[in-house]
UniProtKB/TrEMBL annotation:
Domain ABC transporter: 4-237
Molecular function terms, GO-annotated: ATP binding; ATP hydrolysis activity
Residues annotated as transmembrane: none
Gene3D superfamilies per UniProt: P-loop containing nucleotide triphosphate hydrolases (3.40.50.300)
PANTHER family given in the database record: D,D-DIPEPTIDE TRANSPORT ATP-BINDING PROTEIN DDPF-RELATED, TRANSPORT ATP-BINDING PROTEIN
The UniProt record lists the keyword Transport: yes
Pfam families: ABC_tran
Cited InterPro entries: AAA+_ATPase, ABC_transp_ATP-bind, ABC_transporter-like_ATP-bd, ABC_transporter-like_CS, P-loop_NTPase
Protein name, per record: ABC transporter ATP-binding protein
Keywords: ATP-binding, Nucleotide-binding, Transport
Highest taxon of the lineage: Bacteria
Matches recorded under CDD domains: ABC_NikE_OppD_transporters
């Protein structure tokens, strides 16, 4: 299990400064949430910390290593991402076998057939799905494949960017439960973006509230139910979410 430490992460796109000295620590094996209004910079934190975008300042460490010091191959075996839209993140003309075998080939990992079968089993899909294509799967099944693809290289850390928000409510619960089971079984550390405080409450130990590219407050999960935030913006965000839930 590895911790994640993000220190003074700042980034600008042209003249627009999008992240301002974002810092937070995630303990080994913890699930840490990022919440905040649209455009507050949550996904940008994940994109920078995973080096999908590398023109930032500050430091991101996983275990005792900076993500900048890692080779691309090392980084892939340390850190994987799961995105919101499982259809968009799977190539429509690639069978599930191709989707799952590619990272194994790139990483030169042997025993590919066994690994692919195990990866599908881990996410609750039958092995004969290897010969299917993304359009032959439901949204939830596609997200299970995306999770299997992320886990097949046995990373230490998963960055989850709204992993359930494109799914039906009943399927959301299945994917949340799957992610929670896998974290325990494989000793993973999660950093998860979500706009849904109910999902954060269910999955995360702690979470950061972001506003306009800054971390406003880091809170324990328990702060949601009684709204224990001390900063006005974080309090308003939690209040709005609690009111919305009451209205449902
Ligand atoms: N590649 C880019 N070029 C220019 N601006 C960008 C780029 N990526 C993100 N931004 C801007 O950075 C800001 C933060 O975007 P980001 O996607 O991180 O927000 P978010 O909090 O994840 O929002 P949402 O909840 O809507 O996904 C936004 O103003 C966005 O327009």
């Amino acid at each position: 299990m590895k911790p994640v430490v993000i220190s003074d992460l700042s980034v600008a796109f042209g003249a627009l400064r999008v992240l301002h000295d974002v810092s937070f620590d995630v303990a080994a094996g913890e699930c840490f949430g990022l919440v905040g209004e649209s455009g507050s910079g949550k996904s940008t934190v994940l994109r920078c910390a995973s080096m999908l975008w590398s023109k930032w300042t500050g430091e991101v460490r996983i275990g005792d290593r900076s993500v900048r010091e890692m080779s691309a191959a090392d980084r892939c075996r340390t850190l994987q991402m799961v995105f919101q839209d499982p259809f968009g993140s799977l190539h429509p003309r690639h069978s599930i076998r191709t989707v799952l075998s590619e990272p194994l080939k790139i990483q030169n990992i042997p025993d590919r057939d066994d690994r692919m079968a195990q990866a599908l089993c881990d996410v609750g899909l039958p092995v004969d799905f290897l010969d299917r294509y993304p359009h032959q799967l439901s949204g939830g099944q596609r997200q299970r494949v995306a999770i299997a693809r992320a886990l097949i290289v046995e990373p230490d850390v998963l960055f989850l960017d709204e992993p359930t928000s494109a799914l039906d409510v009943s399927v959301q619960a299945e994917i949340i439960n799957l992610l929670m089971r896998l974290r325990g079984e494989k000793g993973l550390t999660y950093v998860m973006v979500s706009h849904d405080l109910a999902v954060i409450d269910h999955m995360c130990d702690r979470f950061a509230v972001m506003q306009a590219g800054r971390v406003v407050e880091v809170l324990n999960r328990e702060a949601i139910a009684g709204n224990g935030a001390t900063q006005a913006y974080a309090r308003d965000l939690i209040d709005a979410s609690l009111e919305y839930e009451r209205a449902l």
